[in-house]
Write a structure and sequence with these properties.
Blueprint: E1 2-3, E2 8-16, H1 22-42, E3 46-54, H2 67-73, H3 98-108, E4 116-123, H4 136-151, E5 154-160, H5 172-189, E6 193-195, H6 203-213, H7 218-232, H8 238-250, H9 255-276, H10 312-315, E7 323-326, E8 337-338, E9 344-350, E10 355-361, E11 370-377, E12 385-394, E13 403-408, E14 411-412, E15 417-418, E16 426-433, E17 439-445, E18 455-463
Helix pairs in contact: 1-6, 3-4, 4-5, 5-7
């Protein structure tokens, strides 16, 4: 099927046809038309889509033809294909030969002249013959798929689904290794990866993202994703290596500056102890006297801290040192939880910052205005001031703009900030005074529309005003 607009994009969707993938086949088929409608508005293209099963089909879905039968109709001889024939491998393995399907479709599909070539493959086991454990043969099959796709200028987008309850991963380590393989196949060919080993995705959003990503030429996409792929495979990039070597060679030269900085910090800590010790400088019986704020109902609330230079007063320590930073390293949410409208999201990498973050995706038919992230924060000093900061950016350059704010204990501490520029990081921060040792923190969305209202939240930090952690 073909849908006209501007730049040509060919998208072949290939699925493992073992029984465990039936849910994904149905969901994909139902989501296609809406996904194309949304994608056409966000990133118009002359789109052609084909649905193919690996050595099989799914009834009541768009996967009505197999890879083999489709390529045969183009005149490709069966003995030219890498894919194994149905029922010639144990446990439906031929139907799960995702890597072989990548090679066959990349090489023999009737791609249109001048079209961007995209292949979206879905499976829930290994890329070679299924099973939940990797071995050298399965890794090599992935390597071969990558080489063939690159040679044919095909971007491969991957989806790893939830395994059938009868065949779980033997261990968490096996699951992580499988995730790496699906990500590796995508990144090395310039594609997108979708990992849903704990549920089924919102395929309207997945297809829309894939169609939009399909517009990017393979060479450009591969270069953009190289650093992430290198880290995934444990390789050190030239930039990282150079930085490490420079650090090693210059550490002695930096010694005087390091010593000076340590001495300065020691002086600040001495003053902090004097000011906030058991007696304080005035001999008071209390501990740290951060503020003498009036916390009555008539007191003016603290508003947001504008993104201007930090004032000299802010640089002075006003509370015992406190930092709560969430960079999502290794997928650690640091007790943050999705809020009432934090429905659909992916964990994504930010190679330049060496951190991760959350990609919030808005889907039709769901509410999107409300709390997207929330956390109960402890360890605060009552009567002391703190900064609550996040980094966020818009993902889609058209249609509705995301609008976010921050809230503490039910009170707004920032204005509503509109994210108007695609891929431009915005720092959203506000100041609050702790009224107890705990506080409820919330990141709030103020836009309910699902068209274009997608965004990333990359870093969340709570610290004393002027704390260096706020500039990380």
């Amino acid at each position: 099927m073909s849908f006209s607009a501007t730049k040509k994009v060919d998208l072949v969707i290939v699925i493992d046809t073992s029984n465990s993938m039936a849910d994904e086949a149905t969901a994909l088929s139902e989501a296609l038309n809406r996904a194309i409608e949304v994608a056409t508005a966000s990133c118009p293209s002359d789109l052609r889509v084909e649905f193919l099963g690996i050595e099989g089909q799914f009834k009541n879905s768009k996967f009505e033809q197999s890879v083999r039968s489709y390529l045969n109709t183009l005149g490709v001889a069966g003995n030219s294909l890498k894919g194994r024939v149905y029922n010639t491998a144990a446990r439906a393995g031929a139907q799960e030969d995702v890597a072989r399907a990548v090679e066959d479709v990349s090489q023999y599909f009737d791609w249109r002249d001048g079209a961007e070539r995209n292949l979206f493959v879905l499976g829930d086991e290994s890329l070679e013959g299924g099973d939940m454990v990797l071995n050298n043969a399965r890794i090599e099959a992935c390597n071969n798929a990558i080489k063939t796709a690159i040679a044919q200028s095909v971007k491969v987008h991957t989806y790893l689904g939830t395994p059938h309850e009868s065949t779980p991963y033997p261990s968490d380590d096996d699951e992580q290794k499988m995730i790496v393989e699906y990500k590796r196949l995508a990144l090395r060919t310039g594609g997108e990866h979708y990992i849903y080993t704990r549920g089924v995705a919102d395929f309207t959003q997945v297809l829309k993202d894939t169609i939009c990503a399909g517009l990017v030429p393979p060479a450009e996409a591969i270069a953009e994703k190289q650093a992430e792929a290198d880290r995934l495979e444990g390789k050190t990039t030239a930039t990282d290596s150079g930085a490490q070597n420079h650090q090693g060679s210059s550490i002695c030269e930096q010694a005087p500056e390091i010593i000076r900085a340590v001495n300065t910090l020691a002086g600040i800590l001495d003053k902090l102890v004097d000011a906030c010790g058991p007696k304080g400088d005035a001999g008071s019986s209390g501990g740290c006297r951060c503020n003498d704020h009036d916390h009555s109902e008539n007191a003016a609330p603290h508003r947001h801290v504008p993104p201007t230079a930090t004032s000299e007063a802010q640089l002075q320590p006003t509370a015992p040192d406190f930092v709560d930073a969430t960079l999502f390293t290794d997928g650690n949410w640091n007790n943050w939880q999705a809020g009432e409208v934090g429905h659909d999201f992916d964990m994504v990498d930010y190679p330049d910052n060496k951190t991760k973050g959350i990609y919030f995706k808005t889907a039709p038919g769901k509410p999107h205005a409300g709390v997207i992230l929330q956390k109960s924060l402890s360890g605060l000093q009552p009567n002391c001031d703190y900064i609550f900061m996040i980094r966020t950016k818009r993902v889609i350059a058209k249609l509705t703009t995301p609008k976010l704010s921050l809230r503490v204990d039910g009170k707004d501490i920032t204005d509503v900030v509109e994210l108007t520029v695609k891929d431009q990081w915005v720092t959203l921060q506000g100041q609050f005074t702790a009224v107890a040792s705990t506080a409820k923190l919330e990141v709030v969305s103020h836009e309910n529309d699902s068209n274009g209202n997608d965004y990333h939240v990359g870093r969340l930090v709570i610290a004393n005003p002027g704390n260096a952690a706020l500039t990380l």
